[in-house]
Amino acid sequence: MTITMYGADWCGDCRRAKAWFDEQGIAFTYVDLVENPEETERVLEHNNGGKKIPVIVFADDSHLVEPTNDELAAKMQALAGASAEVLDDEPAPDHEPAIVENTHLGRFELLHMGEVVSFASYTEDEGSVTVPHVETAPEHRGNGYAAKLMDGLLRILRKSGRTIVPRCPFAASHIRDNDHHHDLLTR
Questions:
Q1: CA 129, CA 6: separation in Å to the nearest integer?
Q2: 99 and 143 in a common domain
Q3: pLDDT tens digits, 133-145
Q4: Of 23, 50, 67, which marks where a domain is finished?
Q5: pLDDT value of residue 61
Q6: pLDDT of the residue at 92
Q7: CA gap 52, 65 in Å, rounded
Q8: Residues 144 and 185 in one domain
Q9: Integer Cα distance of 151 and 146 in angstroms
Q10: What residues in the chain have per-residue pLDDT under 50?
């Protein structure tokens, strides 16, 4: 997988992204824009003229601009196989989890710092998603991750035109307590 990061050593976001790739053991090519100012044009092209860095370009020619660690983790999860898709396109603030639908495992996952901390297993039939189980890793319980997962999952279902059958007591309770999601219930 080819990953190219355009950045500068004075940029804190660039240093953080480089460190994240190094910690994950992910190879990438780093292009220092101070040492290679002729590459600045590529950055401007990817940013529609904006001067934000880092710009990280992936093998599929997609790119991220100033991504958080969670956004990088979600992108790498999506690139790891065609069966995993990043579906929650609402940008997450720094240190906020990202939501990924892992179709291979049949679950929605909440990724935080590159780790699956909460998931909702599911099956799907004709646009109706049945969620029998929602779980958060014991060491991450009490941080509201299951609720964030449900909010992201429901946002994804709304965007994709799917509905939900919440068999898990937590999922059912979350929807019941948030009446703006009632329209997503399978009738």
A1: 40
A2: yes
A3: 999 989 889 999 9
A4: 67
A5: 74
A6: 47
A7: 7
A8: yes
A9: 9
A10: 81-94
